[in-house]
Amino acid sequence: MFSFFKKKSPPPPAAAPVAAPVAAPAELPSAAPAAAFSAASAAASPALGGSLIGSALVTPIDIPVPSATPPERQKWLDKLKAGLGKTASNISGVFVGAQIDEALYEDLEGALLMSDAGVPATEYVLKELRRKVKDSGITHPVALKNVLTATLTEMLQPLQKPLVIGAQTPTVIMVAGVNGAGKTTSIGKLTKHLADSQATVLLAAADTFRAAAREQLTVWADRNTVEIISQDGADPAAVSFDAVSAGKARGKDVVLIDTAGRLPTQLHLMEELKKIKRVIQKADGTAPHEVLLVIDGNTGQNAVTQVKAFDDALGLTGLIITKLDGTAKGGVLAAIARERPIPVYFIGVGEKLDELETFNAREFAQALLA
Q1: Does the residue 148 lie in any domain?
Q2: Among 129, 158, 187, residue at a domain's last position
Q3: What family classification does the UniProt entry report for this protein (predicted)?
């Protein structure tokens, strides 16, 4: 579930600036902030009567999260827990003993490494657990499991950040990823949610190296009734430039640019991505406003390598983690949080439109240990 706050033209300036009191969360001011993909706003919006509309600000609105999880979110969380079930079973099995001892810590170390958490994150978690056990004096493994949930939540918290739409017009989002990660499908899902919330979207089929990618994106454009800039055999940087220029001329809220999938070891192709970014900046000196990397959750520690390589080349602003519904172990998010904490805007648990959701650190930690 998502909430978007679409921009309107700002009202004429008042004769003199007047300081306005801060409104309570339930009494939203007439000037609402930019669109924020946040679990909090998504959960709260139904109670507030749907999407909020107002002028764009850089900071997303702070709406309190209801104590009860909405049914739609709970349904998705159940899918996430099922997808991470094997990892959760392996880790939870460590805490079935009667005492906290070195054998338990060794078993937990093995379970975390098997979950793709990586050595740095695993070492950090074990160090924190030992310290907290010593400080608190807990002796029962079940209590230690609760401490582990809190520790993982703290570690993952830097990854929890909303994607803000509307601070710039248009908001230009460049999307990268290796072939097979679910990049184009994720763009299609994101387009659907944007379009459903009355945000105007323009797609750019800049993955010109793979003919099927352009055709696939065209299908998503037709399905979502949005416009697309697509040129057969054209230079991807040129397509991106035309899309940003068209987005500005047509007053679009968002321009989503699908770039060619490539491995970070393909240096000449990585240079092509850098070129696309430079050309986008020629069309709009402030763009791209977001550079997202789509990662297949099944790639394990290779995901960390991808994040580092693409971040070094492009300066990533966010991640989309896909396919956490099969053999994906999930612990790689802990590795990312420890080694390259790029915000995770969305995680996906399947191919359906409602199976891409905002990332929440505590929800994910609980699913990983359920």
Answers
A1: yes
A2: 158
A3: Belongs to the GTP-binding SRP family. FtsY subfamily.
How far, CA to CA in Å, does 169 sit from each of 105, 151, 172, 193?
Answer: 52, 39, 8, 18
The two tokens of residue 343 are 């915000």
Domain that holds residue 49: 1-13+23-59
pTM: 0.80
Q: How many domains does the chain have?
A: 3
pLDDT band for position 72 (cuts 50, 70, 90)? confident
Looking at residue 119, its pLDDT comes to 95
Instruction: Please indicate, yes or no, whether residues 180 and 42 belong to a single structural domain of this protein.
Output: no
Specify if 109 maps to a domain.
Answer: yes
Is the pLDDT at 306 greater than 80, yes or no?
yes
318 in a known ligand binding site:
no
Q: Is there a binding annotation on residue 323?
A: yes
For residue 137, say whether it is annotated as part of any ligand binding site: no
Averaged pLDDT, 281-310: 93
Instruction: Tell me phi and psi for residue 202, to 5 degrees.
Output: -120, 125
Is residue 259 a known part of a binding site? yes
